[in-house]
Specification:
30% of the residues lie in helices and 22% in strands. The chain is of the alpha/beta class. The chain has a six-stranded mixed sheet with strand order 2-1-3-4-5-6. The longest helix is centred in the N-terminal third of the chain and has 16 residues, at 48-63. Bound molecules: inosine 5'-triphosphate (ITT). Inosine 5'-triphosphate (ITT) binds at residues 8-10, 13, 43, 55, 70-74, 87-88, 120, 152-156, 168, 180, 182. Inosine 5'-triphosphate is lined by residues 8-10, 13, 43, 55, 70-74, 87-88, 120, 152-156, 168, 180, 182.
């Protein structure tokens, strides 16, 4: 059976990606299943797509396995698209998610409701021998005035789903999956993988 590596060190992403890939005709593994933790990749790209490809290439080269890498982040219109590709490192490498949220809300304190538009963006790269595909997902929302909810990870407590009026952290994983940037990108990746895997013995 083919093995697919989920090439991310972010436990929040691993949980979401693994759940969304369930039932595919392959064995899905993460870094936790590898004997040595792979070296971190420097994310030098200027776009989510460039960084997703950098990560997938790096981990495919390192392990020989087909790799699925995700580069994602939050674009806030009132902050000219920040934090964007720097979402994980916003305010410096040492800040926790709660501290990053605090920083961002501070920058947004005078921004009125109708100007608090934002989106999550996710690019997924699939790379392996005979495999080279990119997928993108986006979801629109608003930045809350204060964090709400305990689910998810990262900026979920301040991202209000435009349709539901609840933050992503107030949604269960099952509710977030089909409407999130990652879910939208992964839905396409999953359909592609299902076809691709047909050429391998199960
Ligand atoms: P890997 O590079 O190892 O995958 P990372 O966390 O560094 O892990 P990124 O460089 O893609 O990944 O940064 C994504 C950041 O964007 C992530 O750390 C969160 O802060 C934020 N983010 C992405 N998707 C999110 C989601 O669904 N909910 C909340 N925040 C999210």
């Amino acid at each position: 059976m083919t093995t697919l590596l989920i090439a991310t060190s972010n436990p929040g992403k691993v949980a979401e990606l693994a759940a969304m890939l369930e039932g595919l005709n392959c064995r899905v593994i993460g870094f936790a299943d590898l004997p040595e933790t792979p070296a971190i990749v420097e994310e030098t790209g200027l776009t989510f797509a460039e960084n997703a490809l950098l990560k997938a290439e790096h981990y495919h080269r390192l392990t020989g396995l087909p790799a699925l890498a995700d580069d994602s982040g939050l674009e806030v219109d009132a902050l000219d698209g920040r934090p964007g590709v720097y979402s994980a490192r916003y305010g410096g490498d040492q800040l926790s998610s709660a501290e990053q949220i605090h920083l961002l809300l501070g920058e947004m304190k005078d921004v009125p409701d109708h100007q608090r538009t934002a989106r999550f963006v996710c690019n997924i790269a699939l790379l392996g021998d005979g495999l080279n595909q990119m997928f993108e997902g986006r979801c629109e929302g608003l930045i809350a005035h204060e964090p709400r909810g305990d689910h998810g990870f990262g900026y979920d407590p301040i991202f209000i789903d435009a349709e539901l009026g609840r933050t992503f952290a107030e949604l269960t994983r099952e509710e977030k999956a089909p409407r999130s940037h990652r879910g939208i990108a992964l839905f396409q990746a999953r359909q592609f993988l299902a076809e691709w895997l047909k050429s391998f013995p199960s």
